[in-house]
Design goal:
CATH class of the largest domain: Alpha Beta
Shape: globular
Strand content: 25-35%
CATH superfamily of the largest domain: Gcn5-related N-acetyltransferase (GNAT)
Number of strands: 12
Radius of gyration: 19 Å
Oligomer: single chain
Strand order of the largest sheet: 1-2-3-4-5-12-6-11-10-9-8-7
Number of domains: 2
Number of helices: 9
CATH architecture of the largest domain: 3-Layer(aba) Sandwich
Largest sheet: 12 strands, mixed
Amino acid sequence: MSKPLIKALRPGDEALLEAFLLPRIESSMFLVGNMRASGLIDNGRAYEGSYAAALKGGKITGVVAHYWNQNLVFQAPVHLNLLWRAAVETSQRSIGGLIGPNDQVAMAKKTLEIDDSRVQMDETEKLYSLKLDDLVVPEDLSSGRVAGRRIEPHDLELLTQWTVAYSIEAIGAKDSPQLWEKSKSSVERSLKEGRTWVLESHSEPVASSSFNTAIKEAVQVGGVWTPPELRRCGYGRSVVAASLLDARSEGVEKAILFTGESNIAAQRAYTALGFRHIGDYRILLLQSPIEVV
């Protein structure tokens, strides 16, 4: 096999990248969303990253991006190891996480010889997709017993608390001043971008949900949180539905999400909303970054 052309993508390559990613949108949302948010320039700001692509006949056959938050994100069915190395060489960052299709994350983990002792989270996720025309709206939401809305400035303190709790429970983060600062910044950014919803019952907040990526074609649901004492009431299902109703009203046609293989309650909730299981995804986060440059 001839050696592939590996190219660091630059401004002007956006259409080339989208031609490869959009047919694979269900497992490419971070890549498309971040590129549209910040382009192909990498100065280390939120959503920015260094993209390395393999090309054959003038078309991309695989891509890996190394983002501002140290995560490597894969859509590389071929030449994966060449691509992540090229992305890291361009970014000059440490590696803090691996995200993408399960088989690709597994290959990179093996190559990097990542020992489980340094892993914060390593979970294979079930990947789901939904055409928003097929959304099944929960009765509590359609009847008005609960109501969803985008968060507002007065929600910042509560949502920061919930984001910290979510990070500790869902991704194995450790409670620390840095986690609180990072969570507050994340909520402030989401507030500015209109990407987080809160569900209210009798005017009291009971659950929240966000879009961790949103483009005109699709949204990706993430960070769904219901405080433990309020669970098993259908609040998570309703807040996700509220966010998707708003997205549909704005012309979005598809929703994507992933959830842990062992999270049966979440799987049932999403299936009840109309989501279909279409594949697997994987998130591996490290307690301490790996230096490879």
